[in-house]
Write a structure and sequence with these properties.
Helix content is about 45%, strand content about 20%. The chain is an alpha+beta fold and about 475 residues long. The chain has 3 domains: about 110 residues, Rossmann fold; about 120 residues, PAS domain (Beta-Lactamase), CATH 3.30.450; about 160 residues, Heat Shock Protein 90 (2-Layer Sandwich), CATH 3.30.565.10. The strands form 4 sheets. The protein has a 5-stranded antiparallel β-sheet, sandwiched between helices. Strands 10-12-13-15-14 form a 5-stranded mixed β-sheet. A 3-stranded parallel β-sheet has the order 1-2-3, with helices on both faces.
């Protein structure tokens, strides 16, 4: 239903004109001299605020109620500062606009209906969930809606004409509310989302959210205060219960994670000694008893050594992964370029006898744990060299870029790449996207990268294509700058 038809359907309201732009609205106001102007904030040619300024400059200006799609405090405050007599969101026209019109024109007029009477106000507010009460300058109740009577167990006879503080055996005689209604509203003209916790008869201890607004200028005879009361007790209790359950779940997750890490550490640590013994005895067999073994037997012993060493490396990686959960993150200002140079120096043997181009771009400083960040670079660069072994020539690039104000570091290579359909497995422990026969490794390196980055509050992800290389990205938010 259009606003014009909405108003025209009510008695004693006569719509005398309409305009589709701010300039036309000002011109029609000067020509028609209406009692009330309903002004949209968004109009072509001239904004609603500009039109409001012009209308209020007219001698003996009409009352102006500003309409907006959303209740934005900035627009509301500017409109009231320019002289608006009311401010209503379009979603609440039926609930707020008509009562506002009634109290602006209590004695009648072209743009007036009997909205000031308790009976009509009750019919308008009948479907409202919140409790509403209309007060005069002496804080006497002029009208209230059915939700108010039902919620607070009072009747119209017990309510209308009485001072708010006297209602229901003084249940509204709340010191904080007195201060707000007697000092804040006369000074500021409004009250937004004020929380009151109080013991109410028939209800017990409840939390109420109060919103109030002076719907006619202070000091004008017949001025009114519209007070909205919402019981948010259950909402707050549900929010608190959700917070409690979330904290309880987080505690359980931390406890289970700690138990799993302790178990992993214990198992891994206990495996190291027998694996070393196995490798050592196999080495002795080859060195001292090889003459008594056939060529096939010697190859079996070499297989034992290779697998024992592989298992030992797997255990070492698992131990390193477990330690990350307990190792504190000691952040300080770090120069990533220096760490990258150290890692590249350590990986120099990987570059021997290979045609591989390594490009290191600008790497801005960050706040991170130097040892942990070096591990990230070591794992990513190690993978880049490993997966470019079968590509000649190859290229590895290290750099940093800005995305939506966020600093993103990356390592890019022209190697084997991978199928993005399996990217979700990439950072899992022991997850591999290539055959062990083609590329060595334990499948823990990227899991370590992810854990380190996450412990810094960052993100890590990858983009790739089969045989066209891969790029690994990660972020390191700076707590001092509030980056995310």
């Amino acid at each position: 239903m259009s606003l014009r038809r909405f108003l025209a359907d009510h008695p004693r309201v006569r719509v005398v004109g309409a305009a589709t732009s701010g300039r036309d609205g000002v011109a029609e106001t000067v020509r028609l001299r209406p009692d009330l102007v309903l002004l949209d904030l968004v109009m072509p040619g001239m904004t609603g605020l500009e039109a409001l300024r012009w209308i209020k400059a007219i001698p003996d200006p009409p009352q102006v109620v500003v309409l907006t799609f959303q209740d934005e405090p900035g627009f509301r405050d500017r409109a009231l500062a320019l002289g608006a007599d009311g401010f209503v969101t379009k979603a609440e026209i039926a609930r707020h606009l008509l009562p506002a019109v009634g109290v602006l024109f209590p004695d009648g007029g072209e743009a007036v209906s009997e909205f000031g009477t308790p009976e009509y106000a009750e019919s308008i507010f009948a479907t409202a969930r919140e409790a509403f009460v209309l007060l005069d300058d002496e804080l006497r109740v002029r009208a209230a809606n059915r939700a108010f009577y039902d919620t607070f167990c009072v009747t119209p006879a017990e309510t209308e004409g009485r001072i708010l503080y006297e209602l229901g055996a003084g249940q509204w005689d709340i010191p904080a509310l007195r201060l707000l209604l007697e000092e804040v509203i006369p000074r500021d003209g409004q009250l937004r989302d004020f929380e009151v916790e109080h013991d109410f008869p028939h209800l017990g201890r409840r939390t109420m959210l109060l919103n109030a607004r002076r719907v006619s200028p202070a000091g004008v005879p017949g001025g009114r205060i519209l007070l909205a009361v919402e019981d948010v007790t259950e909402k707050y209790q549900a929010r608190e219960e959700a917070r409690r359950l979330r904290e309880e779940l987080e505690d359980r997750v931390r406890q289970r994670t700690a138990e799993l890490e302790a178990f992993s550490y214990s198992v891994s640590h206990d495996l190291r000694s027998p694996l070393r013994a196995l490798d050592g005895f196999a080495r002795i067999l080859l060195e001292e008893y090889a003459a008594g073994l056939s060529a096939e037997g010697q190859e079996y012993v070499r297989d034992i050594r290779r697998n024992a060493q592989k298992m030992g490396q797997l255990v070492d990686d698992l131990l390193a992964f477990s330690r990350l959960g307990r190792q504190p993150v000691r952040r300080r200002r770090v120069a990533p370029a220096a760490l990258v140079r150290e890692v590249l120096e350590e990986l120099r043997p990987e570059q021997a006898s290979r045609r591989i181009e390594v490009v290191v771009g600008d790497l801005p400083p960050c706040h991170a744990d130097p040892a942990l960040l070096k591990q990230v670079w070591a794992n990513l660069l190690g993978n880049a060299f490993k997966y470019t072994r079968r590509h000649d020539p190859a290229r590895v690039e290290v750099g940093c870029l800005e995305q939506a104000g966020e600093r993103v570091y990356f390592v890019r290579d022209t190697g084997a790449g991978f199928d993005m359909r399996y990217a979700g497995k990439l950072f899992g422990v022991f997850q591999r996207l290539h055959r062990a026969a083609d590329y060595d490794g334990t499948g823990v390196g990227l899991a370590i990268v992810q854990r380190i980055v996450h412990r810094h509050g960052g993100r890590v992800w990858a983009e790739a294509a089969v045989n066209r290389g891969a790029t690994f990205y990660f972020t390191l938010p700076d707590p001092a700058e509030g980056q995310s």
